[in-house]
Design brief:
This protein is an alpha/beta fold. Among the domains are: 125 residues, Rossmann fold (3-Layer(aba) Sandwich); 87 residues, Orthogonal Bundle (Arc Repressor Mutant, subunit A). 44% of the residues lie in helices and 11% in strands. Helix 15 runs antiparallel to helix 19, helix 16 crosses helix 18 and helix 17 packs parallel to helix 18. The structure holds glutamic acid.
Length: 464
């Protein structure tokens, strides 16, 4: 069996977006599943649109998702000599030829074909054939180089996702593989790379399906083994339209900014177009054990933000408190909140994680624990009523000596509520407002325990 070698081959013209990340994940997982190699290749031949920033953004996204490559990154712009060398071999072997058709001639040909309602295509006028006499090459005109595509028969492959696909060679004209200035063209470079890099499985977006028959023909002309192709269907947004910037976070790193965990994003992406029974929640390790090409769906996958949020909360809850605290700490610091002098951040995250589905909403909720409470006069007026003041004063006096454990604090609250014949919220609400300046908090005994005796006593002074 040929070793499994997959590749991710992004064009560095923008961020690593969700679709690209899913392609990378599937390619990576397939290599890992089979103990193979995963290769990163940067397809930067479109010099007008490729930027070093985009290369960096792709590398950052891959690093964040921990999709580590075994070889590369290879840059196509650094492989120009190799492409030119292969073109020379093809010219010598007769699988490629010089074509001197001018732009004007091509325009005229196109107009003619359109008038006849024919598909515009190169007519092979410079294609060498047995018994055909070619015109003498015009002087002072650099030719393009075309691939001599087979004329007869079909080109077919068994797509691991889409099933058998067959195209008549008569549908394909002779592709330009090098421009007049000698630069090789996109489809050709992909073939040379997949060949040189020994790629066994090409897993990529189905926007490349139309390139595949041409690439197979070129690979065959090179005497290369044709890889298995798996074309992934596109991803639709929550609203069923093609996923785009309108849907908010499209760059993988934007998910980081918004407080998603890479673990959650990986689990989420794994299920975008692939399934293992009804399993929704699984680790990266489990995914590698299960991943196969047979269970990739041919239909489009639909993005579901609520499901991603749900998974994110699941993974946040699974993290040990120390780890969750470590991930939240820099986010608090970025808001100017330093936690070292305040309540235990580990305890705080454990208390608040049930109420938050991103690191950002968790960070937001935690800010109140590290700032002096500043309740609005409306909230104070609403909850700090004359009816409740005696109970609060009683509570205040007792809290200075109570055992500082959550059960002891809970028992004290219960006792005071009973003694003053109040309903629990009557006491809990003003305490929340005084301690955190808000009415929505985790259970008040836990909040009190978290904040510590000094903070609580200081906040209760306000009732005096
Ligand atoms: N560079 C292509 C892209 O970013 C991918 C080509 C391929 O996977 O064959 O869409």
């Amino acid at each position: 069996m040929k070793p499994v070698r997959t590749r991710f081959a992004p064009s560095p013209t923008g961020f690593l977006h969700i679709g690209g990340a899913r392609t990378a994940l599937f390619s990576w997982a397939y290599a890992r599943r089979h103990g193979g190699q995963f290769i990163l290749r940067i397809e930067d031949t479109d010099v007008a649109r490729s930027t070093p920033e985009a290369v960096q953004a792709i590398l950052d996204g891959m690093t964040w998702l921990e999709l580590t490559h075994d070889e590369g990154p290879f840059y196509q712009m650094q492989r120009m000599d190799r492409y030119k060398e292969v073109i020379q071999h093809m010219l010598a072997a007769g699988t490629a030829y010089h074509c001197y058709t001018t732009r004007e001639e091509l325009d005229a040909l196109r107009a003619e074909q359109e008038a006849k309602k024919e598909k515009p295509r190169y007519d092979g006028r410079w294609r060498p054939e047995a018994g055909k006499t070619l015109p003498p090459p015009p002087a002072n005109q650099a030719p393009v180089i075309r691939f001599k595509n087979p004329k007869e028969g079909v080109v077919a492959w068994n797509d691991a996702v889409k099933g058998r696909i067959e195209i008549a060679n008569a549908e394909l004209d002779d592709l330009i593989i090098a421009r007049a200035d000698g630069t090789p063209t996109y489809n050709f470079c992909v073939c040379v790379d997949d060949w040189d890099m020994g790629i066994s499985h090409v897993i990529r977006g189905d926007d490349h399906v139309n390139n595949t028959p041409r690439q197979i023909n070129i690979l065959q002309a090179l005497g290369a083994e044709v890889p298995t192709y798996a074309h992934l269907s596109m991803i639709l947004g929550d609203d069923g339209a093609k996923l785009s910037k309108r849907h908010g976070a499209v760059s993988v790193m934007q998910y980081d900014d918004e407080g998603f965990l890479p673990e959650a994003v990986i689990n989420y992406l794994a299920r975008l177009g692939w399934s293992h029974g009804d399993d929704e929640v699984f680790s990266r390790k489990q995914f590698i054990e299960w991943f196969d090409l047979d269970h990739i769906t041919a239909s489009a996958a639909q993005f579901n933000t609520d499901k991603l949020l749900w998974l994110n909360q699941h993974y946040m809850k699974q993290l040990p408190a120390t780890e969750l605290a470590a991930r939240v700490k820099p986010r608090l610091a970025a808001r100017g909140i330093h936690t070292d002098a305040g309540p235990s951040l580990e305890k705080a995250v454990a208390l608040y994680v049930d109420r938050s589905n991103t690191l950002n909403t968790l960070t937001e909720a935690l800010t109140a624990c590290y700032q002096p409470a500043n309740p609005t006069s409306e909230l104070l007026a609403q909850h700090l009523t004359d009816e409740i003041r005696p109970a609060l004063a009683d509570f205040s006096a007792r809290i200075s000596t109570v055992d500082w454990t959550q059960p002891a604090i809970a028992a004290l609250i219960k006792e005071i509520v009973g003694k003053h014949a109040l309903k629990m919220p009557k006491l809990a609400m003003p305490l929340r407002v005084l301690l955190l300046g808000q009415t929505q908090t985790p259970s008040v005994d836990a909040v009190i325990e978290l904040l510590g005796r000094q903070r609580v006593l200081a906040a209760l002074q306000k009732i005096a």
